[in-house]
């Protein structure tokens, strides 16, 4: 697939300062041909990652200009199905083996019943011997290769990689770039950003696209760069790395301007194979009519429109003839054939329920293998339950301890709220990055992911909450009644699900650093409203009263008190001469909740839970769209 972009700009809007925004990419043009390995280079902050994100579709807002595929304005949905994006960070599903990760990718990406190519790909990429190693135990280079292998499962014709060599040593870097070159030689378009490669590495690339200050200062064959620089009076010293030299010359803004003007901000392509550099910009060459088709006999035919296009095809054949098998592969990978296949299939090769079940199984396996987290959660719940139980041990029937019972109800609700909000706030930002990558690369859609995420956590969460509630209930000595006990556990679980929803909503939108501060802060208003709502509910205007009733902590506490002291609870023992609150009804009246219904409070909490989980879903959609 040949990619082209014309007069591309990308503007980022500051979240804090208002204004026209910062233009990161400034009207650049360029084209990336299939069968080529292309390096986007430039000094730090030049806009390399931004350009890659824009061309790949990973970023979609704040963009102007034209994006074309095989010369035609591209259909974003269709293009996404034909390309994949490999992020700089090695985002791999933890706690799965290499083979399991590959098999999951194959299940998502291939139609049901299709033979999984996992073994062949692992063999080709030298990962077969590590197929039983967990993904988090792989070395940096192996992780990078696995990230590529996962996307190779459905053999997309376009690969985008953001700094694939970052964090790798020299030997592994060369191996990685050679692998990418091999992928390109098989007919794919492989575009990656890279930071000042060594001279030997630079030579491995077919094309260099150099950016400085958001503008293109060179586009063309890597071996044509030094002659081009010389032609504009910037002579690269002998034995100097050309990749270093071009970055060095960008220190001067005059050089940037000169080079940008020479290359027409990317409209010109410099080729070493041309004796004469084309005098006209490439975008006037009508390259769009140069594409491959497959007729009914399966033969690949090259359709040409003009002489300039013939050159491109000759160059392509020259490369692909170098090995017989690769030329065969390039036929198989004919971009048009790919487009034909993609047009007939929907966005995902699997249905909602298939995606849901694959995700659910994957999540359950990961949860069950995360022994450390399971132990920490279990110990936390049991220890806290025992501590609460010891604080209020056997006092449930003591009429003089009524206010301590109230404190216990408030304490239990706060325990569930804070325990459940912090885990997703800490874990979710990283998970969102990984899920965004998989979603962007067309593995699955958001609804089945979200459904699986919600369901997968329930068994462990509900079990631990039940354990906590049981220990507290019996240690404190609340009179046992089946309904009371079940409702007691239900309230704990509902409060924990609301808090988890709030934590997920925060974690999906904010980074860990911000989330840590926002998490507890998000609970605070509910807590404040709860306290305020108890003391002054009868003294404040109706509207304020309604707002306060939306505090899920207040609902939880009220429901908890109604459960502990309701359901026909008998009078408590009184060791003093007079116990004002020995009769539970007196306490409920004093708290102004004698007419409240435990079911109504639970209903409000369930509504809040649905609302926050919907907010979380919308937060994820927002993150994935930007
Ligand atoms: N969301 C954003 N908000 C504000 N500025 C941004 C945003 N995204 C990118 N930028 C700015 O755009 C410029 C280009 O960023 P980009 O990450 O594309 O550069 P880069 O060439 O990839 O840099 P590096 O090699 O250091 O990763 C930088 O000055 C960066 O600060």
From TrEMBL:
PROSITE patterns: ABC_TRANSPORTER_1, ABC_TRANSPORTER_2. Residues 3-238 form the ABC transporter domain. GO terms for cellular component: plasma membrane. Keywords: ATP-binding, Membrane, Nucleotide-binding, Transmembrane, Transmembrane helix, Transport. The keyword Zinc-finger does not apply. The chain crosses the membrane at residues 374-396, 408-429, 449-478, 485-511, 517-534, 546-568, 598-620. One of its GO terms (molecular function) is ABC-type transporter activity. Pfam families: ABC2_membrane, ABC_tran. It is a multi-pass membrane protein. It is found in: Membrane. Its main location: membrane. SUPFAM superfamilies: P-loop containing nucleoside triphosphate hydrolases. InterPro entries: AAA+_ATPase, ABC2_TM, ABC_transporter-like_ATP-bd, ABC_transporter-like_CS, ABCG_transporters, P-loop_NTPase. Belongs to the ABC transporter superfamily. ABCG family. Eye pigment precursor importer (TC 3.A.1.204) subfamily. This is ATP-binding cassette sub-family G member 1. It comes from Bicyclus anynana.
